[in-house]
Structure formats: structure tokens, C-alpha cells
Known about the structure:
Mean pLDDT: 89
Largest sheet: 4 strands, parallel
Structural class: alpha/beta
Order of helices and strands: EHEHEHEHEEEEHEHHEE
Low-confidence stretches: none
CATH architecture of the largest domain: 3-Layer(aba) Sandwich
Helix content: 40-55%
CATH topology of the largest domain: Rossmann fold
CATH class of the largest domain: Alpha Beta
Number of strands: 11
Strand content: 15-25%
Number of helices: 7
Radius of gyration: 21 Å
Amino acid sequence: MPNTNGKAVLLYDTEQSELQLYKNISNLLRRAKRDKLPEEFKSFSLTALSRKERLKAIVQSMDRYYYEFEGIHLVVIDGIADLVRCANDEGESVAVVEELYRLAGIYNTCIVCVLHYVPNGLKLRGHLGSEVQRKAATIISIEKDKDPAISVVKALKVRDGSALDVPLMQFSWNKSLAMHTYIGNKSEKARVQRKRHDLRELCEDLFVDQSHIIFGDMCKIIQSITSVSERTAADYIKDMVTEGIIAKDIHNTKFYVKGL
């Protein structure tokens, strides 16, 4: 939604130098067609701080600007992996995601976290990726297309819906504008192919330790893997049946088995 009330917009960079952050913000201004930054926009380079101090700095500044601007419209953290010592440390991963989840609730705001992970189908690898997937309302993945000059934006998770039905958006570098620009959606055929591929990957996870699964158990496993709602998990099962990826066992229709 537009920030009509002039609430704080906060950007935290945990990865790059202050010079690179300055360049990035200059690009933001050009993209937004503005001459100067609005007063409510604040950016911070946290690279000089230890990983433990970075999260503390985020908490303190959010508290300050919440009262100064009578609310927080949006928070962007680029990137969340630099708030922990190791992205595969389960304890640290759970703690940092729970803290950000708590802050989003306290300040009634949206926190966008950038995570540099290579996704595999409908789930993210590693403890940090798994915890983000479990708690996040939405996950958007940016991946290289077969044509390396094109980046494809696709949904891995959307609240109360199927990520597989979201169009695949394409961006490419525009030399004259010196920034990435939107060049349209991929074809419906490409979206269907992606859906079929991701459903096959999901099927492999479902049957990794068993050959027969009942519907209810399959729903629970899908929910644990992708963190979707029960309704969406049921829709995934329906789609896998339609695609022939899974089928009912001819000897006992209570169970589902892999398709051909």
C-alpha cells in the first residue's frame, strides 16, 4: 500500500560497504524518479558491527523511528544470513527469525528479508532457509533463466494460495537506464512446466522413506516441507493426481503411490 501517512521506511544492509550502499540508494532514487530521499526513508550500513550487534541495532532503531514517524511502513534487511554466525546453526536460525517475527507483530509492519540461498523446488535448504520458510507469509525467489541475461521472479510461498499459480515475471539489465527493468511474464506453457517440475520434486520428498501414503499423512508432510496451509496442500495433491505424478493404489485405494 502507498505510504500516505509518512511512516518510517528502514533499509538495513548487512553485506556491502557504505560506498556500495550509497550507489544502491542512488539507483533507488533514479528508479523512483526523485531528486532526494524522503525524510521518512532511513538506511543503515551494519557491516562494521558484529553479527550479534547488528540485530540489536535493528531493534533499537526500529523502536526510535516508530515513535519519531508514528509508525513503520516497511523494513528491508539485506541480508538476513549476516545476522547469524552460521546459516546452518539451528538455534541461531530459530532465534533470529523469531525475533524478526516478533518485531513485525509489535510494530504492525512488513519486514522483507533478503536471503541468498539457491532454492530447490518449493523449499529452501539449510536451517535458516527452513525457518524463514516456516514463518514467512510470502517467499519470492529470483533465479537466472536459461538465458543468463534474464532473471525470473517466481513465488515459492503465498499466504492462502498456491505459489504454483503465480505468473513468472522476467527482468533484464537495461544498459541505457543502467538498471534492471521488467520485460513481461513468461509464457503460460513455461508456468505449467515449472509447476509440473516442482510437483515432481515435491513427490520425491514425499516418497523418500515410504512407498504408500494416505491422503491425511500426505497433507501433513507437504505442510511440513513447504509451510503452506492444509487447503493448499490438498490442492497440490489434486494437481499431482491430475498430472499423473501420483495415483491411488489399485490394490488399496486408501493409499497413494508414485505415478508413472
